[in-house]
Design a protein that fits this description.
five-stranded mixed beta sheet; 6 helices; three-stranded antiparallel beta sheet; globular; 25% helix; 25% strand; 60s Ribosomal Protein L30, Chain: A; alpha+beta; 2 domains
Length: 237
């Protein structure tokens, strides 16, 4: 797998994101995945508000969350069935504004449809990335907050391991793995690389996207007892 971060100029709020991408990536080969940071997607869709106060930000976090728990460092929230900090609401690289995380599946499909036509390709994946924090790990990784054009989960259940034992529970989180790999070269500070070209990715390209394939039932999730103890999710009746 080969990853190339794309250095660009600053993306301006309300600008045409497909045109912006085409200016810096004029051609693209078949069977490629393009990673796009969620911040430029939010700016494209005008998902911003002027920052007024901490109280305003906390009110927005609660409004945009399915569940929210205040911690000493940030709000631990569930948004769109994903655990994230502050419901994805960000102040970094925002120039005095709050950038709100939109539902990124529709923009991913929109980008894919437009760019497929412009690049004259059939197999194209789009993954929209956002920073995430893993429990008990220092530093950030990234997650796919939206994607299109490939299977986001690879099901290995029933396949043999090295010694012939059949795997019973193993699913590979393809979408989030691609997002983290891309974020590593895109950077988190002033790199100004909101795009990453991923070639030779081990993915299955598709013409439709099932956004529910990557969601895991709360009753089976490894972290559910911990989240219940923190009262971030309720117990199943």
């Amino acid at each position: 797998m080969n990853l190339t971060a794309v250095h660009t100029e600053l993306f301006k709020e309300g600008a045409d994101l497909p045109a912006f991408i085409l200016r810096f990536v004029p051609t693209m080969p078949e069977n490629t995945v393009l990673a796009v940071c969620s911040k430029v997607v939010a700016l494209w869709k005008n998902n911003t508000l002027p920052y007024k106060s901490l109280a305003q930000k906390e009110k927005l976090i609660k409004q945009h969350s399915q569940a929210a728990l205040k911690t000493p460092l940030a709000w631990l929230t569930i948004k769109d069935d994903m655990i994230m900090t502050n419901a994805g609401i960000d102040e970094s690289n925002a120039n005095g504004k709050l950038i709100l995380l939109p539902d990124c599946y529709a923009p991913a499909s929109e980008l894919r449809d437009t760019l497929k036509q412009k690049w004259h390709v059939q197999n194209l994946g789009i993954v929209i990335t956002d920073s995430m924090i893993l429990p008990l790990r220092a530093g950030v990784v990234a997650a796919a907050v939206g994607y299109a054009g490939f299977k986001g989960v690879s099901d290995l259940r029933g396949k043999p391991d090295l010694f012939g034992k059949r795997l019973q529970t193993t699913l590979v989180d393809v979408a989030d793995s691609l997002a983290t790999a891309a974020a590593l070269v895109m950077g988190e500070a002033d790199e100004q690389c909101p795009l990453c070209i991923i070639k030779n990715a081990p993915v299955t390209f598709t013409q439709t996207t099932d956004r529910n394939e990557i969601k895991y039932p709360v009753q089976n999730d490894l972290y559910t007892p911990l989240l219940q103890a923190a009262k971030l999710v309720t117990k199943e009746k």
